[in-house]
Structures are given as C-alpha cells and as structure tokens.
Amino acid sequence: DVKVTQSSRYLVKRTGEKVFLECVQDMDHENMFWYRQDPGLGLRLIYFSYDVKMKEKGDIPEGYSVSREKKERFSLILESASTNQTSMYLCASNAGTGVNYGYTFGSGTRLTVV
Amino acid sequence: GQNIDQPTEMTATEGAIVQINCTYQTSGFNGLFWYQQHAGEAPTFLSYNVLDGLEEKGRFSSFLSRSKGYSYLLLKELQMKDSASYLCAVGSNSGYALNFGKGTSLLVTP
User: Fold this and answer.
1) Which residue of chain A comes nearest to B102, CA vs CA?
2) How far is B37 from chain A (nearest CA, A)?
3) Does B69 touch chain A if contact means CB atoms closer than 8 Å?
4) Which of A35, A75, A114, B22 could be joined to B88 by an S-S link, Cβ 3.0–4.6 Å?
5) What is the three-class DSSP state of A37?
6) Which of A40, A58, A107 sits opposite B42 (nearest CB)?
7) Are B26 and B73 in contact (CB under 8 A)?
8) Confidence at A97, pLDDT banded by 50, 70, 90
9) Distance from C-alpha of B85 to C-alpha of B46, rounded to nearest angstrom
C-alpha cells in the first residue's frame, strides 16, 4: 500500500521555537507539497518541490522554509513559530500528469503554537 | 490565478441524492479533482475530470463543463458515512500544484 507518512500527528510548540515537520513518501514521486488547512480558508499551498533540492513558493510561504535533500523526504521548517501558524499541516505527493496529477496525502500534523 | 467556489455547507437525507457544485475561473486548465475528507483525516481521491462530460464510479459521479468553468459531484443513495467535507481542486497547465476550493461540508441525516 503506497503511503505518505508525516512523522507527527500532533505537536505542541512554544512561540519562537524552530519547528520541523517531516514527510516521507514511498511511491518514487517527483513532486511533493506542503499545505496548511484552516477552517473557512481551505487548503492553502505553502511550498512545493518538483525535484531533489528544488523548491517553489506557494501562496503563503512567509514564515516557512523547506528542504528536499532526498527524493522521498520533504521537510517543512517554521523558523520561529508564531501563534498564527497553529494549523493542520498536510503533506502530499504526485507523479506528474493526468490522473496521476492527483495527490496522495499524508494523515496530517496538527500543530499548536502556544 | 484561480478562483474556486463551492457551497460551504449542505444537508441531505440518508438514501437521497445530493449534488455539490463547483465553479472555477482559471488562467489555464489541466483537470479537476474531487476529494473527500472526513473530520480529522486526510483528503482521499474521489474523481478526476479533464474532458467534458460525466464520469461515473459507483454511487459517485462527477461532471465537467470546461466552457462554463463548472463541475458537480453527484452522490446517490446517501449513507451516513458520506457525511464529510468534499473538496474541489483544479490543476493549471502552468504549474505542478492543485488549487483547492474551501470545501463543502455535507451532513447526512437519518
């Protein structure tokens, strides 16, 4: 069974901490994505990567960075966590075009910044 | 950019049929997806349309009209487990990422 695995289901961090959210996929997908999901706002794209060491900003990259050193792993970094980054974070991957354009999602990380 | 609209909430009765609409405005188009998301869980793939017309998959069907920028998801023989959020997502031919609507929360009542 193919999977996208996010390392933590729930996290509580303090304001100002550096936070790492990890995502690993076992499908050999080229593309990986980080979204945040908030009530009333839906899924918003933070960053994505189409290849190792390549990254592109999404719609709301401020306050975040990413790292993709290996094809299977895509990390989201909150450089200095703030309370407005409390959210559900979803990682996804896909293979390319057509129906494969559709995402496989991880189970999500619910981050609370206090 | 893209603008994707869908109703915020809908309620329907068990055994009935419900249609969830999605309209979109996009500078390019490379397919429309529907996802189902139960509370506290990740979205799961339901359907994909890239050409005009109806795609049927069991109790679920999805329709696309590219000229109208319109899609709908049709759920038949509703079951209580169909209570979930339904996300419409559009791919553009200028990028890799999908853009999502805000989701429609469907409540199925007995």
Assistant:
1) A42
2) 11
3) no
4) B22
5) strand
6) A107
7) no
8) low
9) 12
